[in-house]
Every structure is written in structure tokens, then in C-alpha cells.
Amino acid sequence: MARKGATKEAIRTYITNQFGYDLDRTIDDIRPNYKFNESCQGTVPEAIVAFLDSTDFEDAIRCAVSLGGDSDTLTCITGGIAEAFYGDIPQDIAVQAMHRLTPSMRDVVVKFYDKYKSSVDIRTIHRLAGQFVIAQVTERNETFHERQQVLWSKMIENRVEQLENQSSNIIEKKVKSDFSNKFKKLWEL
Question: What torsion do the CA atoms of 9, 78, 48, 84 make, to the nearest 10 degrees?
Fold first, then answer.
């Protein structure tokens, strides 16, 4: 429903009627008494409420994490619904997440997106993150981390600028090449 343009109220009503979940609560209602609960009945409704209370993807994730308890599971469920409803994961979050994954896990993400939701952005981030991580896999010092943050910030700024200049979501080959060249030049700084 979230991918097909249903409203939050329509999603709330359908899930309440279909599964009997109490989705009339808010995050603020749940938070004071919520404890770790690995069951579907103790996790899924709260994850859905975190999405329903959110204003955008990042807010949905923050709402889920703020509940505590089984927050990794809550956040995964909430994030999946939020991405379907709000659209792509914000670029800065996607870049940071892809960078933290191992090359083999990044491959899994790309294969998933290729199969279920084609995304040039995810493919580009994967390729660039791989170049960065492989080149610096053993370096663990302050300078490396400072350079890493500068690099990711520049990538995000560059991507936002690209999106503002595009009239559609299609990225031309020349833009990808320019993006990759800028990335390489930044690393050499």
C-alpha cells in the first residue's frame, strides 16, 4: 500500500482491520512503557506506529530507535515501510550505510535493488564506496576518519547539486563519469 500511494490513514485502517493491531497510539504513548519484545505482536505494531507518526524517512528511523527495546528490528521494519512510502532513502543516509557494509553485503543490496527497485543512485554509491573502502581497508587513524568525513560530505553535496540540475531521475553516463572523477580527485587531496 505504501508503494502504491495509499495515505497513512488508509494504511492504518487496513492493518488495524486485517490484523487487529492497535495503531491509534502515538510514539509518545508507547515510549514510556515499551520494553524489549521479540515477538511479532510486540514489535510490528510499534514499528508501524513509528512510521505513521513520522514526517519523512529520517524521522521514521528516529521514531523507531527512540522506542528502545528491540530497536534494530523495529527500525528495519519501520525503514522498509518508510522507504516504500516516502521514496528513496535520503542520499546522505544511503552513502553512510553503504560505506559501513562489507563489499559482499553491498553486492547483496545492489542485487536486491536491481531485482525489486532499480536505483542508479544505489549502484553508483556501491561502486564508489567499494573504491574507497578497498583502498583504505587497513588504515585506522584520525587522518583517515577526517578524510572520510570530508569525502562523504563532498559526495553528498555533489549529488544534491546533480539532482537539482536534472529534470528527471535518469543520470546520464557523462554525469556518472564526472561524479567518479570528482570522487577520485577528492581522495587525492
Answer: 30
What is d(CA 3, CA 182) in angstroms, rounded to the nearest whole number?
34
CB 52 within 8 A of CB 12: yes
**Residues 66-100: tens digit of each pLDDT:** 998 888 899 999 999 998 899 878 877 887 887 78
Cell output for 24: 491509534
Distance, CA of 54 to CA of 20 (rounded, Å): 21
All three cell numbers of 21: 493491531
Burial of 176 (0-12, 13-18, 19+ CB in 10 A): middle
Task: Select from 119, 122, 120, 81 the least CA-distant residue to 98.
Answer: 122
With 0-12 / 13-18 / 19 or more C-beta atoms within 10 angstroms meaning exposed / middle / buried, residue 38 is: exposed
Global model pTM greater than 0.85: no
> What is d(CA 157, CA 34) in angstroms, rounded to the nearest whole number?
38
Q: Which residues of the chain have pLDDT under 50?
A: 132-139, 167-176, 189
90 in Cβ contact with 84 (< 8 Å): no
Nearest to 62 by CA among 75, 49, 73: 75
